[in-house]
Amino acid sequence: MTQEPVYPPPEPYTPNFLRRIRRGLYSWFGLLNEWDFRIPVGALRFMGLNLLLVNEPAAVRQVMVSEVEAFPKHPYMLWILEPLIGRGIFAVNGEEWAQQRRLLDQAFQMAQLQRVMPQMAAACQASLARLEAQVAGDLVAGRSVDADAEMTLVTADVIVRTILSRSLEGAEAEAIFAAFTRYQKRAGRALMLRLLRLPRRRLQGYLARDAAPIRAWLAAAIDARLNAPAAHTPGDLLAALIEARDPETGACFSREQLLDQVCVLFLAGHETSASALGMAVYLLGCFPEVQQRLRAEVLEVLGSRAGAPDRPLGFEDLRQLSYGAAIFNETLRLYPPLSFFSRESQANTELAGSRCPMRALVTISPWVIQRHEQHWSEPNAFRPERFLSDANADDRRWARDAFLPYGLGPRKCPGAAFAQQEALLVLAELVRRFEVLPDPEHEPELVARLTLRSRNGIRVRLRARS
Question: Which residues pair with 460 in a beta bridge?
């Protein structure tokens, strides 16, 4: 049996859903039980609401791809995000979503991956410098490094440089991260309390207190840009959002819509990436043979080009890191940053042979599907080989049919390629310069709220390579 990295095991089955909600106030994992990882569809009724957990891949595609209009995002998830992102693309449905997606797609085309590589590289180099300074002191003091905190900072720095053409560090970053952390905790509790029919307005007011400083900070940056002379405007993602025009209507983003979309991009662009990268660093420390193979791949790629091995990794180098991509995909399988997607059925229908009533809350959980006993061999084991081109037929099938960390269909995350490029760069540069070692006195305590995070951080030891 392959070694299994840390994960919160599902609770024993209980028919008492109120007890599960009580557990869910701390982490949405509390809603799950051991049977959820073995069945195609789980269904129950609670306080007049029908709840379905859909694990069967064909039914998942029915909800997220082939019949997506019949399963829009559930209102509970829309209002839980609204205090933070307003009516940004994650919080709307129908034609409003379609227009926003057309404008965002246009902006992302203008800010292509190769064009944003310098901003990613600059943030990565700043991160390495911070880690080098920490390691010098940590080795003397015998302490470890909080990889979770550093991955949160570097991913936020990447997205701020990409959107706003400036860096993010120090007290400014700490204040924003603290507000995000509080919002995460409150959002998880608010959803559980909403299931118990607590008033929506009161819960949104509870959330707005921590959303306000984040929105105010980003609003100030947007206003400064809108008021700046055109000659001084950098060619970043904010500029692309301002210039984007709907090809069907000619419409553009208003100032308030710009703020909502930038809040979405900041939330999605740093919070989800930080979650995945923190766990990837943890896994590298737990599996030294994987780390060594990644480092060998990085040095091989660098050695094939002029100026190696001291030059930074470039755009074309990252495209050759197939094992690095497999490591990150396996990290996303085991630790998907978004553990749950929720939809609302618009009509009476069936999912995998189970009745799905109108207005049911339909949940699709990457956390469950990607650890489901019917989909994966050794589902809780870390095996990057599942995602290599020479993987066996079963692994290739499930990597295609039961792997959805970014969602599926038209509402799939538009920043997936951005996240993959960022992760490969950070991990590859990290193993070039450091040996990642586990901290024997630390184990991450994972909780699922808006995203998957470790309650007690992710501590590792870093040893500088000569």
Answer: 145, 438
- Pick from 98, 63, 77, 79: nearest CA to 347: 63
Can you tell me the mean pLDDT for 97-123?
A: 87
Partnered with residue 49 across adjacent β-strands are 46
CA 88 vs CA 26, 108, 170, 199, 449: distances in Å: 27, 16, 28, 23, 20
Could you say which DSSP state residue 386 is in? G
pTM of the model: 0.94
Nearest CA-CA partner of 324 in 295, 304, 302, 281: 295
Q: Is the pLDDT confidence value at 460 over 90?
A: yes
Query: CB of 427 within 8 A of CB of 327?
Result: yes
How far, in Å, CA of 198 to CA of 192, rounded?
9
Return d(Cα 249, Cα 347) in angstroms, integer.
Answer: 31
Phi, psi angles (nearest 5°) of residue 237: -70, -35
Q: Which two tokens stand for residue 37?
A: 């990882």
Task: Map residue 215 onto helix, strand or coil.
Answer: helix
State phi, psi for 115 to the nearest 5 degrees.
-70, -30
Spatial separation of the C-alpha atoms in residues 28 and 15, rounded to whole Å: 17
pLDDT value at residue 14 = 86
Confidence band, pLDDT 50/70/90 cuts, at residue 1: very low
β 349-351/354-356 pair status: antiparallel
* Paired tokens of 220: 């100030």
Determine the topology of domain 17-464 in CATH: Cytochrome p450 (1.10.630)
Task: Tell me the Cα Rg of the chain.
Answer: 22
